[in-house]
Each structure stands twice: as C-alpha cells, then as structure tokens.
C-alpha cells in the first residue's frame, strides 16, 4: 500500500512511482490504495484523481488540523475512509468532470471544540457524491458545516449527505446542512441527527452482559467505523484506537475517559 | 431459583406499576404469566433485569438465594438471567456476530476461541432455520418481527442462561417458526436441567410446546390467581372478565 506520513515537520512518503507528490499536491494517475497517516500536522493537501482512475483512500488523523481537497476528473472514482481522533481535519471535494463519483465517510472522536467546514461541489453532469459525517463528542462544542453544491446544467447528479453527532456531555453540537442546487434533475438528500445513544440500546446490550464500557466501545466502533471500507489491518488499528480512547473502567461502572 | 417477594415498583415519574407482586420458582420449573395489556408484565421482566427506568419501592427479588436489587443490568445478565424481549430493537453498525462475541467475552475470564465460536454460531443458525448471512448483518436491522424473535433465542442458545424470561415470544412468529423456536428451547432445557423458564404470553398456543408447571394470572400489578395449565385454557375460553378473580373495575383493558 502507498503511504503518506504527515507530521508537524512535514511530509514523508512511501509511495509507488505512479503517485506524484509535488509541493502540496498528490497526483493519482493509476488505480491504487493510499493511506495517509496524519499526526499533529496542519497541512493543506490537494489530491488530483486522473480520468477513470479509482482511489481507495484511508486517512487517520491524530491531533491534526489538515485540510484535504479532492479534484476528480472524468469518471474518476474515490472512496475515502477518514477517521480523526482529537483532530479537526476538514475536506472539500470538486467533482470537476462528467461521471466522477465519491463516497466519503468521515468520523471524528474528539474532546476538542471545533467547527468543521465540508464542501462538495458538482461541476459536471452525472457526478455523484455520497458523504457521511459522524462525530462522537466527548467534550467541547462541535459543528459540522456541510455544503453540497450542484451547478447549473449539471443534469443527472446525485448529492447525498448524512450527518450525525453523538454527544456524551452537555456541550453544544450543531449540524448545518446546506444544499445549493441550481439544476432540477438532481437527487439530493440530507439527514442530520444530534443526540445520545438511546437508553433502549444501552439496556439491550447490558441485558446481554456488556458493561458500560464494552457497550460504548461496541456502539462507538459501529458508529464510527461501520460505514467505512477498510483493510483488516487498518480496521484493527482503528478499533484499538477507540478502545484506548475509552480508557480504563472505573469503580462507578463507567470508564475513565467517557464520564457519562 | 427465583423468588419475588411483595414487589412494589414505580416509574421515575412515580407511576405505580407493580403493586405487591410475588412469585417463587424452583430450579427446572416452567412458569407462565398471563394478564391484560398494560398490567405490568413487561415491566416485571425489565425490573428483574434491573432496568434503571423503574424504581423498586418495596419488596425484594432473590435469584439463587441472593438479592439482585443492588446489581446492575449487566451484572444480572452475567449471573445467568436472560430476557427475550417483547420488542427487540435494532442497532445499526454493530453486527450480530461481533455483538455475540463481545457478550461471550464479557462473561468469561478467557477470550472465546474464534473457531469454536463460529462453529457454535453456525450450528445455532441452522437449528433455528435462519440464514447464516444474518450473522454479519447489523443487530436486527431490517429483520422482520419473527426474525427478531428468533434472533433472541439464538442469543439465548449461545449465552447459556440459567433463568430465561420470554416476553411474548410467540407474537410475530408464524406457526412453523413457533414450533422450531420452542423445539430449540426444549432441547436447551433438556441439556440444562437446572434452567428455569418464565413465559409471558396472551395465548395458550405456546403452551402446547412448552409445558408449564404453574400458570399465574396477573392483574393490575400483582398475581391474583395461580394454578396448572387448565387455568390458561379456562382463561382463553372465558376471558379475564369471566375468571371471577377480581372485581370488574380492577380489570384494565
Ligand atoms: N417507563 C415508563 N414510563 C411510564 N409508564 C410506563 C413505563 N413503562 C411502562 N409504563 C406503563 O405501565 C403499564 C404497564 O406496562 P407493561 O409494558 O409492563 O404492560 P404489559 O403487561 O407488558 O402489557 P402488554 O400485554 O400490552 O405487553 C402500562 O400502562 C405502561 O404504559
Ligand atoms: Mg408487554
């Protein structure tokens, strides 16, 4: 797999020759997998996906504040599984040419306050975007600002977004979904949910013998990673991160880092 | 096995539901509770599982000789009490198999052996005539009413409880499925002689398969009459009004 490491001190690559890293741009000329491991970084990275190329991208952001821009050429297909821990990564997608498609799963597990701007722009006919943004907010105030734009004369587009924030405390959580559609022949949906894991769900899991931490880890893993397409290795790694984040079980039956 | 003594329970906003409920079950016994809608049967099952929405004001619940009132839901479950719920909920993103493996890990010191676990689970799917691919689907997500009920019994088979509460298991199951599910329960009881069953139901049909030792009639939060299986058939014939157990105005419908 191609790997790109983003740190405070800059970028480091372990990439095949078919990926070209120039300054802040990665050019993807061939169907491939890419893993971006971002720690503590604040990069502004653009990925250009060439015509008919398929990209499977996984991103792990740890205490990072990166902005990712995607530029999709004709019939390019991109699937992104982007998991952030205490990070405030944001992203923008431009579906520049006909037939470009993106599926973006963004999940964030955080105790920091943040406003996350996300934008999807359809600039050509028959382009499709399917995005879902999930956040589990342990503390702080968190906002998803999600805008879907379909320009004039872009017939046959699909522009769907689904956003959810589960908050553990009484911090403010907001979802601002915007759909700016300038053409009639377009499928566009959005859904938003802000709340907690339901009492009924927690009771169901507890009635099978799961303690609060085990329930939360299971629910969180489903909520944050359930929609992603990840390799087994990355899936295991992301799951471990969620467990670590939960911390040790404490005496009151809760667990140190999620003080529900 | 289970002894419920003069139990008074109310909701968090002080609505009284159980009003002096008592019941005693020995190991290996099968008991049935029948009663009108809204009489507190599901509430009773949830209170036994220590659901935090209900407050015990008086009385006690002893399981294997010990009060379970101080325990949390997961502790009660790990001691071997299982509730097949009236309306099992669905949980998106959490697969059946992942969930069961976590539940099994939660009750043993050692991690479950994945290979043995998969084998046992496949067998259970087969026993219940459920398609195997369901194990990879999210818990009850897009399952039909009957499939959800079967899934409850699947969990029971794997978690191996000592006390099993069935809250209207028969509602939603078609004739053949009810037979299969009851066959599985009977096999389980044969294998686990000490295991006891508390069945909540509206109709005696399920009792054609699961043969009860005692039938209780519950009205307005307590048991008003107990007897053998003939009580269930009498009830089916005459309805609660014809049972001559309480005055008219006490019957809620
Ligand atoms: N959490 C709650 N808050 C308020 N009222 C409740 C709560 N739980 C149960 N009740 C009420 O308590 C009564 C008993 O409910 P329960 O579900 O136990 O009845 P049931 O005997 O199982 O009925 P059915 O046969 O219809 O399943 C009902 O009137 C119900 O509305
Ligand atoms: Mg009920």
Would you mind describing this structure in some detail?
The complex is a heterodimer of chains A (260) and B (253). Chain A is 14% helix and 50% strand. Chain A has 260 residues and is mostly beta strands. Chain A has one domain (2-197). Chain A starts with a strand and ends in a 14-residue tail after the last helix. Chain B is built from seven helices and twelve strands. Chain B has helices at residues 41-48, 73-78, 96-107, 114-127, 145-159, 175-191, 230-238; strands spanning 2-11, 16-25, 30-34, 54-63, 66-67, 81-84, 91-95, 138-139, 163-167, 196-200, 214-219, 222-227. In chain B, strands 6-9-10-3-11-12 form a six-stranded mixed beta sheet, sandwiched between helices. A four-stranded antiparallel beta sheet of chain B has the order 2-1-4-5. A two-stranded antiparallel sheet of chain B has the order 7-8. In chain B, helix 5 (145-159) runs parallel beside helix 6. The longest helix of chain B has 17 residues, at 175-191. At the A-B interface, helix 1 and helix 2 of A face helix 2, strand 7 and helix 3 of B. Residues 41-42, 86, 167 of chain B line the site of magnesium ion.
Estimate nothing, just give the exact number of structural domains of chain A: 1
List the quaternary state of the chains. heterodimer
DSSP helix fraction of chain B: 25-40%
β-sheet strand percentage of chain B = 25-35%
Shape of chain A: globular
**Spatial strand order of the main sheet of chain A:** 2-1-5-7-9-11-13-15-17
| Chains forming the largest contact | A-B, 24 and 29 residues
Q: What bound compounds does this protein have?
A: adenosine-5'-triphosphate, magnesium ion
Overall geometry of chain B comes to globular
Average pLDDT figure of chain B: 91
The SS-based structural class of chain A is mainly beta
Largest sheet of chain B: 6 strands, mixed
Instruction: Work out the number of β strands of chain B.
Output: 12
Q: What integer value in Å does the Rg of chain A equal?
A: 19 Å
Instruction: Please give the largest β-sheet of chain A.
Output: 9 strands, mixed
* Low-confidence region ranges of chain A: 249-254
**Backbone CA Rg of chain B:** 18 Å
CATH architecture type of chain B:
3-Layer(aba) Sandwich
Give the helix tally of chain B: 7
CATH topology label of chain B: Rossmann fold
- How far the N terminus sits from the C terminus of chain B, by CA atoms, comes to 32 Å
């Amino acid at each position: 797999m191609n790997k790109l490491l983003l740190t405070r001190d800059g970028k480091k690559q372990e990439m095949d020759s078919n990926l070209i890293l120039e300054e802040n741009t990665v050019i993807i000329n061939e169907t491939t997998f890419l893993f971006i491991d971002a720690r503590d970084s604040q990069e502004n990275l653009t990925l250009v996906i060439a015509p008919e190329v398929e990209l499977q991208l996984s991103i792990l952001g740890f205490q990072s504040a990166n902005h990712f821009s995607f530029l999709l050429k004709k019939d390019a297909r991109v699937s992104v599984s982007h998991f952030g821990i205490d990070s405030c990564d944001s992203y923008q997608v431009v579906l520049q040419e006909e037939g470009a498609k993106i599926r973006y799963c963004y999940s964030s597990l955080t105790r920091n306050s943040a406003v996350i701007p996300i934008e999807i722009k359809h600039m050509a006919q028959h382009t499709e975007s399917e995005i879902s943004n999930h956040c589990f907010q342990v503390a702080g105030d968190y906002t998803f600002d999600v805008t879907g734009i379909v320009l004039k004369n872009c017939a046959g587009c699909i522009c769907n977004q689904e956003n959810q924030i589960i908050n553990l405390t009484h911090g403010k959580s907001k979802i601002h979904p915007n759909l700016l559609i300038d053409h009639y022949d377009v499928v566009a949906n959005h859904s938003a949910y802000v709340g907690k894991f339901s009492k009924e769900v927690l009771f169901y899991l507890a009635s099978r013998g799961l303690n609060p931490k085990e329930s939360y880890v299971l629910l969180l893993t489903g909520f944050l990673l359930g929609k992603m397409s990840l390799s087994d290795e990355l899936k295991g790694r992301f799951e471990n991160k969620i467990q670590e984040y939960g911390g040790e079980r404490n005496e009151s039956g809760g667990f140190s880092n999620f003080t529900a | 096995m289970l002894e419920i003594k003069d139990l008074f329970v109310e909701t968090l906003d002080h609505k009284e539901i159980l009003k002096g409920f008592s019941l005693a079950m020995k190991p290996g016994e099968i008991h049935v509770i029948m009663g009108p809608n809204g009489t507190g049967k599901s509430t009773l099952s949830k209170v036994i599982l220590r659901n935090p929405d209900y407050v015990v004001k008086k009385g006690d619940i002893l399981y294997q000789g010990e009060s379970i009132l101080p325990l949390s839901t997961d502790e009660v479950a790990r001691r071997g009490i299982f509730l097949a719920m009236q309306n099992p909920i669905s949980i998106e993103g959490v697969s059946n198999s992942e969930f069961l493996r976590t539940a099994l890990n939660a009750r043993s010191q050692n991690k479950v052996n994945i290979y043995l676990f998969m084998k046992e689970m496949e067998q259970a799917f087969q026993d219940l005539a459920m398609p195997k691919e369901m194990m990879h689907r999210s818990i009850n997500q897009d399952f039909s009413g009957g499939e959800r009920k079967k899934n409850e019994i699947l969990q029971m088979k794997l978690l191996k409880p000592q006390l099993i509460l069935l809250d209207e298991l028969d509602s939603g199951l078609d004739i053949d499925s009810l037979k299969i599910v009851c066959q599985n329960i009977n096999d389980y009881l044969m294998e686990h002689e000490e295991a006891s069953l508390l069945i909540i139901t509206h109709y005696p049909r399920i009792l054609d398969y699961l043969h009860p030792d005692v039938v209780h009639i519950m009205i307005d939060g307590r048991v008003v009459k107990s007897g053998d299986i003939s009580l269930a058939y009498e009830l089916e014939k005459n309805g609660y009004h014809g049972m001559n157990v309480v005055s008219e105005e006490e019957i809620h419908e």
